[in-house]
Structure formats: structure tokens, C-alpha cells
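Below is one protein, fold included:
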Amino acid sequence: MSERVDPGPAADALMGARRSASGWWRANCPYCLSASGKPDRRQSLGIKPKISFFMCFKCGAKGRLPDALSRSMLEKGPDESPPPIKGPPDGYEPIWTDDVWTSLYLETPRAYLERRGVSRAIAKSSRIGIAVDGRYASRVIVPCLDLDGSTWLGFSARDWTDKQELRYRYPRGMQRAKFLYNQVALYTETDAPVIIVEGVFDALPYWPNAVACLGKPGELHERLMAEASRPIAVCLDGDSWEEGFILSEKLKLEGRQAGYVQLPPCTDPNTVDRAWLMEEAKKCISN
């Protein structure tokens, strides 16, 4: 569908809505039936009362709620979603554009991305950029966006030279414990598993079917994963397989179809064979 729709059915659907850990309200989408002929039973409709906006992550229906209804929803409790930051840092340039991707001057960051399994198509889809000067100079900028892709919640700035003291930097005020990188992938309606990894460069080679915790998974991350609409394969770094196993068991207790992949010691999802990992992800779900 992917179009603006009459907000009336969305307002009615709120009678059965629940507030998620991400700050969105979730309800069964009333528009899915007309789009596909099948009713939604996985609460695919996301409602953001703070901005009077709703959208379905299954059929694409979207629109605005009446302000009075949005205000009444906000009165039910504080919005726990992470606050947005100002946006990309000074000096940010999208790397996938013709003039940047083909620039001889920028061959080094381009080669770095390709070495990490990030193609030009993935860079464009995930809106990766670079900074050549300023606070984040000589770093690849990987945006962390909200569910509809319109707002920056933060970014990961990775040194492409491997010479700076800190390999990763994050903007001040970024609340990594409150969201997941590429979190929207959790809500894609499919039987294919989404893999849970630690860092953005573990997720990018498997784009768009990977979600990163921006570190070790925390309690709120687990609550977000428990809202997933698809199977989950936990693929933490090789030395964290026990944590991955425990997380998968917690998700099973929440009613999710989940499993874990034990990577070899001293490896991570970015350094193992990708076809092998995706095959193992499918197997761990079916076991």
C-alpha cells in the first residue's frame, strides 16, 4: 500500500494497542486486510503519538492521528524512546554518490568498506557516509535511524585508518541502550531469520537482515527483540556464545521463534563465511 490512508481505522485499532519498549504503540493493522486479503495478527501497526504519526511495517499504510487522540495516548505514560540528535555530524558526505564513490582521493575509505563486506548498494541503502574533517575526520559514519528512517538517533563513527586512539566514536547524548541498529528489520513479516549481532560492521554484510546491539545486548534490547515479527538467530562474537545461548532461551520464553549460532573462538560475524553463517542461522531456528 505505502500511501497515506484514512486515520479512522487506526484510531479504532488503538483500543487493543500496547506501548512497546521502543516508545511506539503497537496494534493489529486494520489496513492489511484490504492490501493483502489477510488480517494482521502480529501488531504490525506502529503509532508514535508524540508526532501524531502511524505506519504499518507490513502493508506500508501510514498517516497522521488526530492531535486530541495523540495527547490522550501521551497522558498514559512517558515516551521512553531515545531522543533524536541533531543529525549527521559536520563534514558528513554520503559515500555512495558518483562523485564520492569514484573519487581517487577517497579510495582508502571505499576500500575499507569493501573489505568489511559493505558494497556500494549496501552503503546507499543504509545511508553510510564519511567525514574528511572536523571532530570525526577520517571516519566512516554509519547512521542509526528511527523506525521510519526519518530521524537520526545517533551514529557510529569508525576510524578507517586504524591509527586513531579510539576505533569507534559516538555523538554526545546518544542512548545506545534504548534502541537497536536497523531495528526496523525485526518487524519485517517473513519466515527468514533476522540475525542479532554486536556491532554495526557485523550487521552490514548481512543487510538488511541483521540487527546490531551497538555492544552487548541489554535488558531493553531484549524487550525490543521480544516484539519481533520474524524468527531470531542470535549471532554474538565467538567468545560470547554462552551469552548468545542465554539470550535465545529468554526469547523463546517470550514466545519468539529463536536460536543461536556458536561462532568459532576469536571470530565475529564479519570475519566468518557469510553463506555459512546464514545457513547456520536457518538451522538454529529449525532445531
